[in-house]
């Protein structure tokens, strides 16, 4: 991919995945907490913008999270 936007504060972009991306790939890290290992991304262009949606649009970010979680509220987990 020419562009990867990480929004999840979890280790889903593994070394194996990042090694298969082209060297000119741009990686934007928006997660509130970065789970990217520096050693895994040293050849990629990285833009760290940690927590950017919540910093600049907290009401909208909260609304999006609320709307995504609303269907699960009140349901028992299995």
Please describe what this structure looks like:
- By secondary structure, this protein is an alpha/beta fold.
- The chain has four helices and three strands, in the order E-H-E-H-E-H-H.
- The protein has helices at 15-19, 38-41, 52-56, 58-69; strands at residues 3-6, 26-29, 45-48.
- Strand 1, helix 1 and strand 2 (26-29) form a beta-alpha-beta unit.
- The longest helix has 12 residues, at 58-69.
Overall number of strands: 3
Approximate strand percentage: 15-25%
Q: Walk across the major sheet and give the strand order.
A: 1-2-3
Provide a count of the helices: 4
Instruction: Label the structural class.
Output: alpha/beta
Shape: elongated
| Stretches with pLDDT under 50, minimum 5 residues | none
Helices and strands, in N-to-C order?
EHEHEHH
Helix content: 25-40%
What Rg do the Cα atoms give?
15 Å
Query: What's the N-to-C terminus distance?
Result: 35 Å
Mean model confidence by pLDDT? 83
Main sheet properties = 3 strands, parallel
Topology at a glance:
Layout: E1 3-6, H1 15-19, E2 26-29, H2 38-41, E3 45-48, H3 52-56, H4 58-69
Parallel strand pairs: 1-2, 2-3
What is this structure, in a nutshell?
By secondary structure, the protein is of the alpha/beta class.
Describe the structure using short key phrases.
single chain, 78 residues, alpha/beta, 4 helices, 33% helix, 15% strand, elongated
